[in-house]
Structure to design on (654 residues):
């Protein structure tokens, strides 16, 4: 792999053709403040001590790398599950919110805003705001508020204010728009904690770095278990793509490790009800970065569909657009019904009820080629508690 | 000579620019609204190109964008509507819109079409200055388009000066920490920001926008700049109107006089 093929962000915030910071001038000072400071703050011993300390004692890291023997037997490979579902709050999202809230404190911010779709990132943000005693406002689409009611109440119990996004399609995309507008309206004392590897530079890289603890741990855990740091494949689901970015991060530039991204196929890639961005999307600009997104010929953003609210996003992070573009990542689309079946299968085989997002990554085993000696790490990004209603409605268990 | 340059050569004070959303309230209202804006006595027309995700805009302009899109507006359709508009409209016309629909149209094809129909300038709120310089400046100049940048109370002096260097039409001064249509009136804090920018003696004229809605706010803004831009307040007039031409002219006259 030569220098040009390396997967990394350049100084303007681009991964190959994708990334950048396409934002209104009103957001420029905030984003610039972050860009100028995040690397030096993150590199400081003080930050690292606090971040690592909280990941260990509060989040419960390292999360186990669990050898799933019955799943392995069924699929004919050595399959490990990276148990992000065991993180405090039930998903990997908290790795990022811990990092960003410490950063926000160092920048002297007093208030936190965030967007949320299913409510997982909202809960993870409300949690760290409670932990740090900071004022917290979460923007959530009106439709998502109705369908993710328990998470709305969790955020409120944690002391956050939940503001409905009533514009556009009233889901994650619009919650993100509302959070950006709120940041324009409150530029001085407020930090915006974006929940995925999306948004203007430096967010995609910053969030990926906070999540990169996932692949950092996989490396030494796998070394202990298999005598090598490198699996043959890493599989993760991709909505915006933060858990995938974290699981791939330390393997971006290790060509022997295949990186498999499971997108939400919804009711089928060609059904018009899908969130399979790389299959149906084209290059464009969404939420401040150039990436691949689902849009009309005229450049209007198309509303996605997935049974899993966490994958229900019309774009992907620019790093994933780049992995797709240069062929470094293998992208598969997993339909709603197959993800549900995989979730139930994992429950029966391993006693783990996964988040429906993560079940997409499990099902990807059926869509790719591998051999029986291959070591496969699947990033189990979250647990299924929040999806109980969806499982119950699905009913086929 | 570009009509925007010509305008500011002849008029240094109380320049009024009116923003409206193309294809709103009805698909075919675009041209009649432009005629009424000119007849009412405004100096510049900003034609808003609707987008599904307008992050810098408040509810009024968001809603107008949604309705216009539901009406079937598109950039292609806007250019169809604008064909031949120079037979009737002689004041400067600027297209204002987010980058994505324009990228999908094709940047060069878009610029070429703008020149062809007689558009004078562009305001693309999510096109950052550096990206403009790196990728688009030459193209815009080739097709005689003047690009306007926004500045806000948060913009540093250094950056304001860079923006001033890289534009040649006018600078769009966002009046407050705000999305469009969020606040009414002008506060002491805003006045001190206006004073601060005025003291920079920029080479470009400045128009103040966001929060301008009537004769009083227009006059205050004009005291600190070369004029002002009205968007959301105008959209409200259009939205509730039973007689577009009459209501638009009456509203603009009430602001200007």
């Amino acid at each position: 792999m030569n220098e040009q093929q390396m997967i990394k962000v350049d100084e303007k915030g681009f991964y190959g053709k994708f990334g950048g910071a396409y934002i209104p001038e009103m957001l420029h000072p905030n984003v610039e403040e972050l860009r100028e400071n995040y690397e030096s703050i993150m590199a400081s011993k003080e930050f690292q001590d606090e971040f690592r300390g909280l990941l260990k004692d509060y989040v419960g890291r390292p999360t186990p790398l669990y050898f799933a023997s019955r799943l392995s037997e069924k699929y004919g490979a050595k399959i490990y599950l990276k148990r992000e579902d065991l993180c405090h709050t039930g998903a990997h999202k908290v790795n990022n919110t811990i990092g960003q809230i410490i950063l926000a404190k160092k920048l002297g911010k007093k208030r936190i805003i965030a967007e949320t779709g299913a409510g997982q990132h909202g809960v993870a943000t409300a949690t760290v705001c409670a932990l740090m005693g900071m004022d917290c406002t979460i923007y959530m689409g009106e439709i998502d508020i109705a369908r993710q009611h328990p998470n709305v109440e969790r955020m409120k119990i944690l002391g956050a204010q939940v503001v409905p996004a009533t514009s556009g399609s009233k889901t994650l995309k619009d919650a993100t728009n509302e959070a950006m507008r709120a940041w324009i309206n409150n530029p001085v004392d407020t930090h915006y904690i974006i929940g995925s590897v999306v948004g203007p530079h430096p967010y995609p890289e910053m969030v990926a770095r906070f999540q990169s603890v996932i692949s950092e741990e996989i490396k030494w855990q796998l070394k202990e278990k298999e005598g090598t740091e490198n699996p043959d494949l890493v599989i993760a689901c991709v909505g915006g793509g933060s858990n995938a970015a974290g699981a791939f991060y330390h393997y971006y530039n290790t060509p022997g490790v295949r990186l498999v991204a499971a997108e939400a196929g919804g009711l089928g890639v060609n059904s018009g009800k899908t969130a399979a961005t790389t299959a149906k999307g084209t290059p464009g600009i969404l939420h401040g970065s150039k990436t691949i997104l689902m849009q009309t010929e005229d450049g209007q953003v198309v509303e996605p569909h997935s049974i899993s609210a966490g994958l229900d996003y019309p774009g992907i992070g620019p790093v994933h657009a780049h992995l797709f573009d240069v062929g470094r990542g293998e992208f598969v689309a997993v339909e709603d019904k197959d993800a549900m079946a995989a979730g139930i299968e994992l429950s029966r085989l391993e006693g783990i009820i996964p988040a429906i997002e993560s079940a997409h990554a499990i099902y990807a085993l059926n869509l790719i080629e591998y051999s029986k000696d291959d070591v496969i790490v699947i990033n189990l990004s979250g647990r299924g508690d929040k999806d109980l209603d969806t499982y119950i409605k699905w009913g086929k268990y | 000579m570009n009509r925007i340059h010509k305008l500011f050569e002849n008029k240094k004070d109380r320049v009024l620019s009116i923003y409206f959303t193309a294809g709103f309230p009805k698909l075919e209202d675009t041209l009649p609204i432009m005629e009424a804006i000119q007849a009412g006595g405004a100096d510049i027309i900003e034609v808003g190109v609707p987008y599904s995700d307008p992050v810098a805009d408040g509810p009024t302009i968001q809603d107008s964008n949604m309705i216009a899109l539901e009406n079937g507006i598109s950039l292609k359709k806007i250019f169809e509507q604008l064909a031949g508009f120079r037979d009737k409209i002689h004041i400067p016309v600027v297209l204002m819109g987010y980058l994505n629909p324009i990228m999908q149209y094709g940047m060069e094809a878009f610029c070429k079409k703008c020149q062809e129909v007689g558009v004078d300038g562009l305001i693309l709120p999510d096109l950052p200055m550096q990206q403009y310089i790196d990728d688009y400046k030459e193209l815009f100049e080739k097709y005689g388009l003047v690009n306007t940048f926004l500045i806000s109370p948060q913009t540093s002096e250094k950056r304001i000066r860079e923006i001033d260097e890289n534009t040649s039409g006018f600078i769009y001064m966002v009046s407050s920490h705000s999305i469009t249509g969020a606040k009414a009136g002008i506060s002491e804090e805003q006045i001190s920001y206006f004073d601060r920018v005025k003291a920079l003696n920029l080479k470009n004229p400045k128009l103040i926008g966001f929060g301008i809605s009537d004769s009083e706010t227009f006059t205050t803004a004009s005291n600190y700049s070369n004029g002002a831009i009205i968007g959301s307040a105008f959209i409200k007039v259009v939205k509730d109107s039973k007689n577009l031409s009459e209501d638009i002219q009456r509203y603009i006259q009430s602001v200007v006089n």
